[in-house]
Design goal:
By secondary structure, the chain is of the alpha+beta class. It contains five helices and nine strands; from the N terminus they run αβαββαααββββββ. It has one domain (5-11, 38-202): endopeptidase fold (from Nostoc punctiforme) (Alpha-Beta Complex). The strands form two sheets. Strands 1, 4, 5, 6, 7, 8 and 9 form a seven-stranded antiparallel beta sheet that branches. Strand 5 and strand 6 (163-172) form a beta hairpin. The radius of gyration is 16 Å and the shape is globular. The protein starts with a helix and ends in a 5-residue tail after the last strand. 37% of the residues are buried.
């Protein structure tokens, strides 16, 4: 999460991003079938577009529970946190904190902490990966981009300096569904699922 905005977009999007040519109008995306709960989750994530316009992963002391940084900014994790909170009232801040207090040794020690910190723990991708796995939400990686389902959560590396997380959309791209994420310019929906190697796939509370 210390990667610069330019580095995040160039490393993760690169040649995988699609751009409209001048004078061309892109065809509207095709919709994919989503479960009702997945559709609610995706709508909550999509509602952040145009609201969260900056990427900012800096540490901020926030209230607990239901804490958040100002909505105009946030990290990739905040897209997921806000979507679950807005769609279902599920507070990942409180859920991750409760599990970390019960099983702190199960979580990464990357940040040399000796106790949970409810202001930041849930905003770190490795912690979310551990929590989702411990909740039985981890799935095998599909062989084809078309096998991803709306509402799936993906993770991938940013070079060797961090991780990224986002939500699979119910709009279809040329090779895979679009994704909703914040990789440097705020919350966006774009054709970038296969732009970098994927490290994890999760499906939680959308069935």
């Amino acid at each position: 999460m210390n990667v610069t905005i330019l580095d995040r977009r160039s490393l993760l999007l690169g040649a995988g991003a699609s751009f409209a040519l001048p004078g061309c109008t892109a065809a509207p995306p095709q919709s994919l079938t989503a479960t009702p709960r997945a559709a609610r989750l995706i709508a909550a994530a999509r509602g952040q577009i145009g609201v969260t316009t900056r990427y900012d992963a800096a540490y901020s002391a926030i209230p607990f529970p239901d804490g958040d940084v100002p909505r105009e900014k946030g990290a990739c994790t905040d897209v997921i946190i806000r979507a679950y909170r807005d769609a279902f009232g599920l507070d990942l801040q409180a859920l991750v904190n409760a599990d970390m207090r019960a099983s702190f040794a199960a979580y990464p020690r990357t940040w040399d902490l000796d106790r949970p910190d409810p202001s930041i723990d849930h905003r770190r991708v490795p912690n979310l990966c551990v929590w989702l796995t411990r909740k039985g939400a981890a799935l095998p990686l599909p062989q084809a981009g078309s096998a991803w389902l709306p509402g799936d959560i993906f993770t991938r590396g940013v070079g060797n300096r961090g991780t990224h997380i986002g939500l699979v959309s119910d709009h279809e791209g040329p090779r895979a569904p679009l994704i909703i994420h914040n990789i440097g310019l705020g919350a966006r929906e774009e054709d970038a699922l296969l732009a970098a190697p994927i490290t994890g796939r999760y499906r939680w509370s959308i069935d």
